[in-house]
Amino acid sequence: MISYCPICGKPVYFAERKRSLGKDYHPLCLKCYHCKRQLSPGQHAEYDDKPYCNHCYLQHFGPRGTRWPTLYSSLRAASSSKVPLENQNSS
């Protein structure tokens, strides 16, 4: 029985398949949906039927403590670029 790749929709033959999370992929189709890094079978996560490397999965869908602090870092950069109040009064 021939299965179909969930990424490209083409048939996946037994000799070329990479089976992961209950699905058969072409070797070149099994890559992270976000960063496009090649994935090995069983060593990745899946969200909304799309494969993600563990890093991207945690960054986008994991608990808040593991996400990149983009809002915090942008607020921090904006506050560090302001002139301190002591220097504004003396000029």
UniProtKB/TrEMBL annotation:
Transmembrane segments: none annotated. Residues 3-63 form the LIM zinc-binding domain. InterPro entries: Znf_LIM (IPR001781). Keywords: Acetylation, LIM domain, Metal-binding, Methylation, Zinc. CDD domains: LIM_TLP_like. GO terms for biological process: intrinsic apoptotic signaling pathway in response to DNA damage; regulation of gene expression. GO terms for molecular function: zinc ion binding. Seems to have a role in zinc absorption and may function as an intracellular zinc transport protein. PANTHER family: CYSTEINE-RICH PROTEIN 1 ISOFORM X1, CYSTEINE-RICH PROTEIN CRIP FAMILY MEMBER. This is Cysteine-rich protein 1. The lineage of its organism: Eukaryota, Metazoa, Chordata, Craniata, Vertebrata.
